[in-house]
Amino acid sequence: MKQIFAIILLFSFATGIITVGFKTVAPQLGISFNPYTNLAPRNGALMISTDGGVTWNNTITSGGSSFVTYDIEYYLEGDQLIMLAGTSNGMLGSTDNGVSWSPIAPETIQGTVYDIAINSSPRRATIVVAGQNSKGYGAIFRSGNGGETFQQTYTTPTSSARVVGAIFDAGNSSRVVALTDEGSLITSLDSGFSWGTTLIGEGSGGFRQLVRYPHEPNTLFALSTSGLYKSTNRGTSWRSLGSQLSQYSGATTINAIAVSPVAESMYLGTNYGILRSTNRGDSFQEVPFLVPANTIPITAFTTDPSSDSRAYAGVRQQIYETTDGGRSWQVAAVEGASYTMTFLSVNPTNTQIVYAGFSN
User: Fold this and answer.
1) Are 123 and 32 in contact (CB under 8 A)?
2) How many other CB atoms are there within 10 angstroms of residue 285's CB atom?
3) In the 3-class helix/strand/coil scheme, how is the chain assigned residue by residue?
4) Which of 84, 256, 293, 336 is 20 to 30 A removed from 320 (C-alpha atoms)?
């Protein structure tokens, strides 16, 4: 990935300075790395493969089935790759390609981190933190000094709301967009100081993820429990893509979404199977797969950030790999996995390193 200086972090009960383990690598970001050794592997909540998915080892343990990995993001600080993971146990950081992880400010980041978004900014990072405050309300916090201090700049009207997605606008780094699970699109035009809202999907709720289409800066997608929504004007208005998915029974139950950064291919992992769109969601085609359609849900999916031909799909405790754009697949069991695979990610600096998250 390109060098970046601005970070959006989503988590619950968040205030304070960001710290993670090991060594100081990004002083201009206000991030310091201190030793932490209390993440001994037990249950394999997040696992790592360094050989393209052939063999696996534990890297983060949950201590139980409730741990969920929601997101992993990557950025370079000089030659140092820094990884940030959003999990049900807060924000975690790694400086060794995900072999070991440390909690970020565990005394203040005490709840779920749903999403992490990164974009260019001035020398010291502007950090927008969204999730829930100490009273249980959805909230957004902003730091303009690399994480040294935060101020709360938004609170959801109800305590039941969560902030589940956030992105920087590709064409305007001062514009930040966040999404609540109730379907409110929260937009800031001043890097997170003030916010306005737009309702998606007529209040249908159940929203889980916000995705920016990297090949067209005006296009956004919002994933909900009832299907997929698309905006072609940076979130000002939205339309449901239910009709494009209706021919595939079970396809509106979408468990994973991935957009290739090198080609205009968007993949959906659904209860029907794997679907692909090459025209920004205007239509979808079924991807041939080893598992018959409508038998077992596809619960995780990711693409290789350097090749549109290579992708991974997760089914239960098995990982499927294609190197020819989905025409053929190889399958392998992830030894040591205890629960269902719900997350996949490929390291952008070494694409032989793959991460798989498991939860109950």
Assistant:
1) no
2) 12
3) CCCCCEEEEEEECCCCCCEECCCCCEHHHCEEECCCCCCCCCCCCEEEECCCCCCCEEEECCCCCCCCEEEEEEEEECCEEEEEEEECCEEEEECCCCCCCEECCCCCCCCCCCCEEEECCCCCCCEEEEEECCCCCEEEEEECCCCCCCEEEEECCCCCCCEEEEEEECCEEEEEEEEECCCEEEEECCCCCCCEEEECHHHCCCEEEEEECCCCCCCEEEEECCEEEEECCCCCCCEECHHHHCCCCCCCCEEEEEECCCCCCEEEEECCCEEEECCCCCCCEECCCCCCCCCCCCCEEEEECCEEEEEEEEECCEEEEECCCCCCCEEEECCCCCCEEEEEEECCCCCCCEEEEEEC
4) 84
> What backbone torsions phi and psi does residue 203 show, to the nearest 5 degrees?
75, 25
Q: What is the pTM of this model?
A: 0.83
**pLDDT (tens digit, 9 = 90+) per residue, 264-306?**
999 999 999 999 999 999 999 999 999 999 899 999 999 999 9
> Exposed (0-12), middle (13-18) or buried (19+): which is 322, by Cβ within 10 Å?
buried
Identify the CA nearest to 77 among candidates 124, 36, 115, 114.
Answer: 124
Chain centroid to Cα 138, Å, comes to 18
CA distance 360 to 351: 27
Q: What tens digit of pLDDT does each residue of 134-155 get?
A: 677 777 777 666 556 667 788 8
Burial class from Cβ neighbours inside 10 Å (0-12, 13-18, 19+) for residue 261 reads middle
Give Cβ neighbours of residue 299 (< 8 Å, ≥ 6 apart): 255, 256, 269, 314, 315, 316, 340, 341, 342
124: left (phi over 0), alpha (psi -120 to 50) or beta: beta
Residue bearing tokens 């139980």: 64
* pLDDT tens-digit readout, 175-209: 989 999 888 888 999 888 898 877 776 556 789 99
Q: CA dist 205 to 160, 181, 208, 222, Å?
A: 11, 6, 9, 11
